[in-house]
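Please decode residue identities from the backbone states below.
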């Protein structure tokens, strides 16, 4: 197998199906946020005329609800990794938190070594999962159990729903900030990131990929972990299709 020139000095960070799920998550969240603002905020109330925003909000909710199912159907391995990695913190992660102000300011150099996700990403992803659950439960309660909730139950569900959306919006602002500062967007657009950046920011993950590439080289004569990444993508796609 020849080394691809196209992705020389790059490493595959997200497979196609992971990126599709992330696109569904991002799109449905933005739809929910915008239509939610129209429903909530009086100055935008005129946009809600005709009940369109309520309908689009519900369509966005179905998309948001479909995210975990889509992840499990399309890429079980990716879904498992995401949950497992997000809730597991080691000593290096604790050290990373202690110096994370440096990372906030755009200095990844000399940070404690990190795995596929850095400690901040783990915390973000775990918080997104937990807070999304409260958005979903409170939203479904208001959608399907309005009569049973009564006035006070409905008010409580609305407060939980709105505060949870506020929290997710603040997480998103941070998420976009780091995406911009660390030029991470290619991981979600093409799937590939620069190898040098990955070595700097996720050195333990790169060590794992190097070890896998070594094993492949010994076993089958492949020549770089660029190929391991490609193989990972195509094998994963085939196994999920089969
Ligand atoms: C709207 C624009 C968004 C952009 C540009 C964006 C960008 C990105 C990028 C670049 C990554 C990969 C980071 C890396 O590990 O290198 C990522 C991962 C992720 N993002 Fe976003 N994101 C967006 C919206 C959201 C929203 C709204 C949420 C949650 C409500 C979210 C949750 C996540 C999660 C959970 C991952 C990890 C995905 C996985 O491991 O499969 N993102 N995002």
């Amino acid at each position: 197998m020849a080394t691809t020139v196209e992705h020389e000095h790059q490493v595959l960070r997200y497979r196609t199906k992971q990126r599709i799920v992330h696109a569904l998550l991002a799109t449905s969240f933005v739809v929910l946020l915008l239509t939610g603002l129209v429903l909530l905020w009086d100055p935008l109330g005129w946009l809600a005329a005709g009940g369109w925003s309520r309908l689009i909000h519900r369509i966005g909710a179905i998309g948001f609800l479909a995210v975990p199912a889509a992840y499990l159907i399309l890429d079980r391995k990716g879904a498992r990794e995401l949950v497992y990695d997000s809730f597991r913190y080691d000593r290096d992660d604790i050290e990373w938190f202690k110096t994370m102000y440096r990372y906030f300011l755009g200095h990844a150099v000399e940070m404690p070594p990190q795995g596929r996700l850095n400690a901040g990403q783990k915390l973000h992803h775990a918080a997104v999962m937990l807070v999304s659950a409260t958005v979903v439960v409170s939203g479904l309660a208001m959608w399907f159990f309005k009569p049973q909730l009564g006035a006070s139950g409905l008010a409580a569900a609305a407060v939980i729903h709105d505060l949870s959306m506020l929290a997710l919006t603040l997480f998103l602002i941070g998420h976009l900030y780091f995406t911009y500062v660390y030029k991470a967007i290619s991981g979600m657009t093409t799937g590939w990131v620069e190898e040098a950046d990955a070595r700097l920011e996720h050195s333990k993950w790169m060590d794992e990929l190097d070890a896998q590439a070594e094993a492949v080289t010994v076993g089958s004569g492949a020549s770089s972990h660029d190929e391991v990444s490609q193989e990972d993508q195509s094998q994963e796609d085939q196994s999920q299709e089969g």
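Observation: The mean pLDDT is 91.
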